[in-house]
Amino acid sequence: MCYAAGGIQPSVLRPNERGMCYAVAHPSVCAFREAASAGAVASEVTTASVLGRGLQEGPSESAPQASPSGKTRLLKLLRAGGAGLDIAAIAAALRQGGKLNHAKDYTVLISAYRRQQRWREALELLAEIQLRRLELALPTCSAALSACERSGRWEQAAALLDAIENRLGMELDVVVCSALVSANAKAGRWAEALAALASMRGRQLLPNEVSFGAAIAACEQSGQWKPALALLIDFQQSRAASEGVCSLPALSAALSACEKAAKWRQALGLLSCMTAPRGPGLDIVACSAAVSACEKAGKWEFGLELLVGMIPRRLLPGVIAGNAAVSACHVGCQWERALSILRQAFEWRFALDVVSYSAAASACGQGGSWISALGLATEMLRTTVRPNTVTRNALVSGCEASGQWERALDLLGAHFGPDCRRDVLTINAGISACDRGSHWRGALLLLSELRPRASAWPALPALTPSIVCFNSALSACARCGRWRRVLGVVNELREVGLEPDIISFNSAAGALERGGQWSRALRMLEEAQRSCSRRLGPQAAALGVALGACERDGAARASQAAGLLDALRSGASSQLREVLEPR
């Protein structure tokens, strides 16, 4: 059946009103434009050599033509494909030789463009077929649709499918509809991919493995684990009459969706489906995703069990599974097990990277083994692996948590390389170390690095201070009784757009109490009481230090102390003001 040129209109091939028109003005114009681009070598036979053998002199000296044997060589070269194949030059030779007269020849050209993901040229050839009123078949349209699918051009794929069905009157098949599902999946449009899959059933088409796999992959990329599992069940039920077994790519995609959502139970359930008698079996990717799901859910026991269970199946854990297991040990405070995994890395044949060392160092620091964490840093320096910011943060936090504040400050000032810069977590760990060592000057110096200083630090990114940084600095100043510095930090906290929390109020009130500033302590307490709207409210500790300030001022403040106790029982801000400013 011959489909006329009016079947696929140029407007259908446009992505939108502002897009490019893909209709071809004239075949010769298109040929000269395409032939302007230079090609590379395809396999061992260059395009130029094949064109040389495929061209012969015709009646006119300026019009080389392709002989029948030359045409066969050219089409064979197109079918062989190759990333550097000059498809435009081959098409120009076929046109000039008058041998591009069948839609099946165009199909070979479009398929070659599809392999190179050149969807524009594929649509231009399809429009050229319509302009020349050649017989158009579904395989040719399917090749053009597949070119759009490989490039993730879902708009062009949807428009082309609509033209094939409604304007050309062709009956769609599973391959064409699956290409639309895959195009939406590659564009990250999981809902549209599911809609395209559902439309196949409306056309009385049974989705195949490719259709379900593309839809499940779309859900996986968007973190939609529930639709992914529902599609997997639907896929298995649809194949119950034949094989009743899900493919490994579909299972792996669903398992990856569960991994991203930290759904470890569902991930382990999918692993059991893979190891079923008729299952596809396990691979390293699926096992690594399951270990990562356990790590994200804090189930380090199951993650380690999966990692060890890979060895009898002759699946050597790769760096992804190994790092996930080490991170799981960090979450579970199992620093000795984390070091054990690192020692098994050589036997399991996976190379340690900066993620491996950083996760193990974090586990050691969290477990109080700061010596082991520093040993890992020394080991890193003897290898080609270079520490980064995460590594420094793990070392500084580990020493700070173990009370080794001097070593933490040494690590803070050490130079680990260009990839190891300070961030908010680094500075916060340093301020906490200064707090533990009652080094209030160092805490304020580190806090000053969070201020905008583009001229002094041109290579550093902007650092946004957090309330945790300010609270650590407040605590350091309060330990040393520097109440004036405390008030300065509180004011600076407000200047950067933050609000003090109950920890800030307690530290400030404690510093004022120790400095005998009972009036300021009471005002700080009143401000904390007004924070009841944010469900903070003053704690008994803050009221206690304020009462201590009243007591130190002598018996003359006994009435204020009694009123303060009443305010503590009732939690009323108005009573605090009456105590602070008695009539």
Description:
This protein is an all-alpha fold. Among the domains are: 1-170, no CATH class; 172-279. Helix content is 64%, strand content 1%. The chain has 32 helices and four strands. The strands form two sheets. It has a two-stranded antiparallel ribbon. The chain has a two-stranded antiparallel ribbon with strand order 3-4. Strand 1 and strand 2 (45-46) form a beta hairpin. The longest helix has 14 residues, at 154-167. The termini are far apart. 48% of the residues are buried.
Q: What portion of residues belong to β-strands? A: under 5%
Tell me roughly what share of residues is in helical segments: 55-70%
Please give the number of β-strands: 4
Which ranges are low-confidence, i.e. pLDDT below 50, for 5 or more consecutive residues?
A: 1-66, 453-460, 532-540, 572-583
Which structural class fits the helix and strand makeup? mainly alpha
Strand ordering within the main sheet: 1-2
Give the overall shape.
Answer: elongated
Cα end-to-end separation: 103 Å
Rounded radius of gyration (Å): 35 Å
Main β-sheet: number of strands, strand sense, barrel status?
2 strands, antiparallel
Number of helices: 32
Give the rounded overall mean pLDDT: 75
